[in-house]
Amino acid sequence: MALFKTYQKLLKNHFMVVQAVQTGLLMGTGDFIAQTVIEGKKIKNYQLKRTVKFTLLGTCFVGPTLSLWYRLLARTFGTEISTSTTLKKVACDQLIFAPSFLALFVTNLNLLNGRNFEDIKKDLNTNYVDLLIANWKLWPAVQLVNFYVVPLNYQVLLVQGVAVVWNTYLSWKTHL
Q1: Domain that holds residue 82
Q2: Which of 5, 44, 87, 154 has its CA 20 to 30 A from that of 144?
């Protein structure tokens, strides 16, 4: 219980930093799981640099972007818990944010991996539609719960908790 109170205090006083760090750690966890469980790599073949890049992307891009996005949704549609508000947030999230965010995510990951724009374009042509369809299989249901039940300060945490599975998939899919 003391740990949760400390977390709440940190979240209140350093919202963006906490969101960024927790997202980075959970994305790194997803990459670790992708490498060791999904890809079956032994520790001697484990690519720490890959996990560091995924963690960095989560800390510097994903966490801050999600935090700002959820605040924008709250300002735009309010924080009222209603079916109408929730459906508007989910529709915006999945029809506007998710498609553009996934493209930016794949682009940023490729840039971190030193790829040029021609290779990034090929990667997007190869993987983007699969990623977007997979996104739409998971995230609308999660976001319905998130926007209907979870207070704004904890929405990124819930999403990133579920996203350990999503990040595992993303890491595996973007490192084939």
Answers
A1: 2-174
A2: 5
Note the pTM of the prediction, 2 decimals. Answer: 0.85
Q: How far from 13 is each of 16, 74, 150, 175, CA to CA, in Å?
A: 9, 19, 19, 36
Q: What is the pLDDT along the chain (176 residues), one digit of tens a residue?
A: 788 788 788 878 888 899 899 999 999 999 999 999 989 999 999 999 999 999 999 999 999 999 999 899 999 999 888 999 999 999 999 999 999 999 999 999 999 999 999 999 999 999 999 999 999 999 999 999 999 998 887 887 788 788 888 888 888 887 76
**162 within 8 A of 142, measured Cβ to Cβ:** yes
Contact 153, 15 (CB under 8 A): yes
Interatomic CA distance for residues 50 and 87, integer angstroms:
36
